[in-house]
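Problem 12. The chain below contains 280 residues. Write out its predicted structure in token notation.
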Amino acid sequence: MHYADRLSARIEKTSPVCVGLDPILPSLPEGIEKNTAGVERFCKGIIDAVKDSAAAVKPQLAYFELLGWEGMKVFFEVCDYAQKKGLIVIADGKRNDIGSTCEAYAEAYLGKDKPIDALTVSPYLGSDGIKPFSDLCAKNNRGIYVLVKTSNPSSGELQDLPTGDEAVHEYLAQLVEGWASMALGEKSNLSSIGAVVGATYPEELKYLRTIMPHVPFLIPGYGSQGGTAQDCKPGFLGDGSGAIVNAARSILYASKGKDWQAAAAKAAETMAGELRKVLA
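Solution.
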């Protein structure tokens, strides 16, 4: 099934919540070993806690890469576990390159045998750095999320620079919509090519939605970064579809005690309820 159709069906069944899997060793809760075995146990425990209320999980590759080859083994095992629990898996690696190197990155994460549904990518190299990913999306029913307007405070240093009458991120959004319009799902009318647009910039989020009507949004910045459900609302289409909202720390570390799993489940359910309320 086309990625956007699969994602839309999962959101309809659960909610637009995406849980970021950021296993920071010093932050792991009581009773969890501060090593690769603990990371695997923690991530699988979070998946079990949120599988009924969240549409997706977004494992952050940096925290697994930090643990070397054993960490990467755990990464793929966690992705496989999440898929088997019915969750959409978005690998957050922000990969990009050109030529055969880009093709290798694409195959590494979007290959048919990989337990990953989508990957975040950087657009800085232009369409040469996007096409190998989009080709595999079409071939293997996978998705990508292109960084357009990120949630971090310094994003405007480059992304807000003027290019004529537009900012860089606005011009990029037009490129993304053009790429996306050639890869639409039959049921959702959304593309396998998505965009990352932060909740911490709600006015930009609102405008970018008008530029990219066929692009599924991945919206970071909710919770610990200061974004609210109301801030996220402009990133959705009029019918309440078309986006998922990511939260990591506010769910993962809702408690660092022995009740960490129950606390994570409750935090995810609360977030789902807040999003449903503003989208109703």
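Discussion. The two ends are 28 Å apart (CA to CA). Students who got a different answer should revisit the alignment rule from Section 12.3.
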